[in-house]
Design brief:
This protein is α+β, with helices and mostly antiparallel strands and 989 residues long. It is 49% helix and 20% strand.
Length: 989
């Protein structure tokens, strides 16, 4: 190795040669001239002798100098050789070192530069020796090095520092030790230095810090309560769940003893800790604890040792999980699913000796845990993940997570990485949870999983993510079983509904004939009091049976959640008067006084369901009359803050306190003797309370035996300025009310045909009977037929009433058709209206209802001419029915038309906008409103289309969009007809 070489001065030899030469020269000078003068005095000889003396002096001094200098040069050469050997030895030692070794003079120029130093900077020593640091480092680094060198010289001692330098291998970190070079007199003439490359050591330290941060992240977000302790039971780390479960909050616990924080820990738990510290794994799947409030808490816990780097036990890890709710759900599932066994899989993994504390939480987890880098590649995978996926760790490490286990959808279709929400969350540094994902095992089989990712962020940068997943097979199996159970329940409910509908039909059909014949007999009995009494009792018994059937159907609809509740204007005063009037005759027959009281602050109108409120009031009044042998029955109505309160009080037999709880239970009464004495199904009060709850109210009772009972119905009070439709005028005893009407009746039951024909002919109508739907269509469409209305039975042989109605609508769209059905369910009514019927009558048919419906919908030719419409939109409103409904109230009809025009000015356009947006739910709401509006305005086509649209929207059927457009067109025609009738222009739609 070349280095700066110097020859040391041998001042001692030089001094000796000078002294000898000076003595010889002095003696020659002093004695040579004297000797010549002694030999001769001749000038010529004296001159020649002087010349010879000079040459002799030269020769003698030359020989003397040669003799003296040869010895000095020999000693100097020997010393130089020894120094060169020493330098070669130093250079050999320096070149054999892996550390950079160098020496500099005080000007910063290199005197020594070993092979390792040359390798680091990528330059041979020949290019460096004699030059300073600027020849090998950037100026700012060279200035920094020279500053440190000057400090070493100034301080005069050895100094060790870290230096970050640009080398041939990139930027490296060196641990540099520098000290002064001194001569034999102690003077500083330069510095020496030894630099060791510690770059990899620094990287290892950074990786260790990153691993420790990762350990903290795993522990912090672990789903179970986890804590790590050393051998002295001092805390090393604890998860957030541990802090929450044991109410530690933000207290500083790291380094503190577990027994100091929880001094009340039992001896049994201390013994468990000691067993684990001896190397034993102690666990319990279900351990019962009693909380401070006395309730049971169930924990699944595990205590296991962890190994230190030396292979010994470094401490223990405690894992606990509150399984109280899971145990409760499991027990409940076992009771309801015939003791299904719970399958619990527990997975544990061996701890890694090199990364004991970091790997413990990961390898002990039953969930799969995968660490991803910022690009989505797998850098760590725990044993649970490998076991679930069927891979060895080395088969996954370094691979893209999506391509490895997530590259296909559940149905086998390709799953591009750019569409993967999990990878997108990792790249964006977002947390994500997906409960219904599918990973793919090594054998190609799918694994249903719930997966969650959490980003690893440091200094605001994304370094990757932690992805956890669990086997969702059991959960999906449970969901599938629950879905099968739900489908079975729906099937049973459908069978139950079909049974109830068929039961209603099979009972109502003969009951229709029985009541019809009884009404005919009662009407025709004349002065025969005994016969009238018998027919009256038959009618009463039939109506009681009808009430029982209606109660069963109502209760069934309530149980199925399919009983609709209206919100329309109603009059509380009118409800009280109608209810009292309906029970007045029954009360008078028992010599009971019945009263109706209306508070003066009752609203003129409010929103609610008048039919259901009346049903409750009639049930309460009927019970009061039934169970009151003497005294009075009183119905009162008042306002109480934001509530409407109806109260029914009686002086009857009362109810024992022990029986009040069972009073509202289905199919129960106060006691069996009550049922035997008074009859009834026990459904009335149960239905009444359910109806009250459906309307947002409540029904309560107070009673004592012998002191009567008091039932109180409380409902939300919502005032309104909308007009209340008056009740249908009574048609009883009006004589030949159907005179001049030609009526076609389609009915397959012979008794029902007889009853209907008798009813209608007795009211003055001309009647033609048809035995099925096909015959009805033929009769209505034959040449010269001019029927004003068709009464169409729904269930008939050959062709039912629904199909017959559809065919008549196509050929005779203006002919009104009224359905007759023994199915009292709302679905049947809607099906009839959707087919094109104007209304439906429920069997058994009451004569007064029959006459009212016929008068409301029949349209004789001579009456049609008086309708106020003179355009193609005229038939959209049944003006005859509307005027008949509000007889002698022409001014009210005019106001109703004006209000309708104002309130529905933009409704058709709004409906079309909802269709364009595909808002089925909003379309359903608007169709429901239009159904009630069309019924009030006697607009059957709009009502029919509204019902059809509502049904499709509620079923989330896309056909609702087309129905809604038809409804909007019909509503436009209705608005034009109303505008023409009022003499105004319809508002822009």
């Amino acid at each position: 190795m070349p280095s700066r070489q110097g020859v040391p001065d041998s001042w001692h030899g030089v001094y000796k040669i000078v002294l000898i030469y000076a003595a010889f020269a002095a003696a020659w000078i002093l004695f040579s001239d004297e000797a010549i003068h002694l030999l001769t005095a001749e000038p010529e000889r004296l001159m020649r002798l002087s010349i010879l003396k000079g040459w002799a002096f030269v020769v003698v001094t030359s020989l003397l100098l040669y003799a003296l200098l040869r010895d000095a040069w020999r000693r100097q050469a020997q010393a130089l050789a020894e120094r060169m050997n020493t330098l070669r030895l130093i250079e050999a030692i320096a070149d054999g070192s892996e550390d950079a070794i160098f020496a500099k003079d005080l000007a910063g120029r290199y005197l020594l530069f070993n092979r390792a130093a040359s390798r680091f900077v990528g330059k041979p020593a020949e290019e460096v020796v004699g030059r300073d640091d600027r020849c090998i480092f950037p100026p700012e680094q060279a200035d920094m090095i020279q500053l440190l060198d000057r400090r070493v010289v100034a301080e005069g001692g050895v100094r060790t520092t870290e230096e970050v330098l640009d080398t041939a291998d990139g930027t490296r970190t060196f641990l540099a030790t520098k000290g002064p070079l001194r001569d034999e007199h102690g003077a500083v003439f330069g510095i020496f230095g030894i630099s060791r490359d510690i770059t990899e050591q620094k990287r290892a330290e950074a990786a260790l810090r990153e691993n420790m941060e990762l350990l903290g992240l795993f522990v912090e977000h672990a789903p179970a309560a986890i804590a790590m302790f050393d051998r002295e039971m001092r805390y090393l780390n604890a998860s957030r769940r541990w802090r929450d479960d044991y109410a530690l909050g933000e207290r500083e616990i790291v380094g503190r003893s577990h027994y100091e924080i929880f001094p009340e820990i039992s001896a049994a738990w201390r013994a468990v800790h000691r067993r684990a510290l001896r190397g034993e794994v102690v666990r319990a799947d279900e351990d019962r604890f009693v909380r401070a409030d006395g309730t049971d808490q169930w924990l699944r816990w595990e205590v296991r040792p962890w190994q230190g780097a030396d292979g010994g036990i470094g401490g223990i890890v405690i894992l606990s999980e509150d399984v109280t709710e899971r145990k409760r759900l499991t027990s409940e599932l076992e009771r309801h699913r015939h003791h299904l066994e719970e399958l619990v899989e527990q997975r544990t993994a061996q701890l890694s000796a090199a990364e004991a504390r970091l790997r413990l939480v990961i390898e002990s987890s039953a969930d799969g845990i995968i660490e991803l880098d910022a690009a989505g590649s797998i850098v760590m995978v725990n044993p649970a993940a490998c076991e679930m996926l069927g891979y060895l760790p080395e088969e996954l490490l370094g691979h893209n997570a999506h391509k490895a286990v997530h590259a296909m959808h559940a149905d086998g279709r390709g799953y591009p990485e750019r569409e993967c929400a999990v990878i997108a969350a990792v790249l964006a540094g977002r947390a994500l949870r997906q409960d219904d994902e599918v990973f793919w095992r090594a054998d190609g089989s799918p694994l249903p999983v719930g997966v969650a990712t959490h980003p690893i962020l440091r200094d605001g940068r994304i370094h990757g993510a932690v992805m956890t997943f669990s086997d969702a097979t059991e959960r999906q199996r449970t969901v599938a079983e629950r879905e099968r159970a739900r489908a079975e329940a729906e099937r049973l409910a459908r069978i139950k509904g079909e049974f109830l509908a068929n039961m209603s039909h099979e009972i109502r059909t003969p009951l229709n004939g029985m009541l019809g014949l009884a009404q005919i007999g009662h009407r025709d009995s004349g002065d025969n009091g005994r016969a009238r009494e018998i027919f009256g009792r038959i009618i009463d018994s039939g109506r009681l049976l009808l009430t029982i059937i209606n109660d069963i159907l109502d209760f069934s609809k309530i149980e199925a959640g399919k009983l609709p509740i209206e919100s329309v204007p109603l009059s509380p005063v009118q409800l009280v008067d109608e209810a009292v009037g309906a029970l007045a005759m029954a009360a008078t027959a028992k010599n009971l006084a019945i009263f109706g009281e209306k508070a003066p602050d009752l609203p003129v109108a409010c929103l609610g369901d008048p039919a259901r409120i009346s049903q409750i009031l009639l049930n309460l009044l009927s019970n009061a009359v039934k169970f009151t042998p003497r005294g009075e029955v009183r119905l009162s109505a008042r306002r109480d803050g934001g509530e409407l309160v109806f109260c029914v009080a009686d002086t009857g037999i009362g109810i024992a306190a022990a029986d009040l709880e069972r009073l509202f239970m289905p199919f129960e009464q106060a006691d069996s003797s009550t049922t035997r004495k008074y009859g009834g199904t026990g459904l009335g009060l149960a239905i009444s309370r359910r109806l009250a709850e459906l309307m947002g109210g409540r029904l309560e009772v107070t009673s004592r035996p012998g002191d009567g009972s008091r039932f109180e119905l409380r409902l939300p009070l919502v005032d309104t300025d909308q007009p209340v439709l008056p009740p249908m005028a009574s048609l009883a005893g009006a004589g030949l009310r159907l005179s001049g009407l030609r009526i076609l009746v389609a009915e397959d039951n012979e008794v029902n045909r007889f009853v209907l024909e008798d009813f209608l002919r007795a009211e003055g109508a001309w009647v033609e009977m048809a035995g099925n739907g096909r015959l009805a269509v033929e009769a209505a469409t034959r040449p010269g037929a001019d029927f004003h209305i068709v009464l169409m039975d729904v269930q008939m042989p050959e062709m039912d009433g629904i199909e017959a109605t559809r065919r008549l609508r196509q050929r005779l769209p203006a002919l009104p058709i009224v359905g007759q059905t023994a199915h009292a369910l709302k679905e049947e009514h809607n099906r009839c209206l959707a087919a094109g019927m104007a209304a439906t009558l429920i069997k058994p048919i009451d004569i007064e209802q029959l006459v009212a419906v016929v008068l409301a919908h029949a349209r004789p030719a001579d009456r049609r001419e008086s309708a106020p419409a003179a355009s193609v939109d005229g038939d959209i409103v049944d003006w005859t029915a509307l005027q008949r409904r509000f007889r002698d109230r022409r001014d009210f009809v005019e106001r109703l038309v004006a209000l309708s025009l104002e309130s529905n000015a933009g409704t058709a356009q709004r409906l079309r906008e909802l269709v364009e947006a595909g808002e089925l739910a909003e379309i359903g709401k608007l169709a429901h409103t239009l159904k009630g509006f069309a019924g009030s305005m006697s607009a059957p086509e709009v009502e029919r289309l509204a019902i059809r649209t509502l049904a499709a929207a509620q079923a989330e059927d896309g056909a609702a969009l087309a129905h809604a457009l038809d409804l909007a067109d019909a509503l436009d025609r209705l608005m034009r007809a109303l505008a023409a009738a009022s003499g105004s222009k319809p508002a822009a739609q």
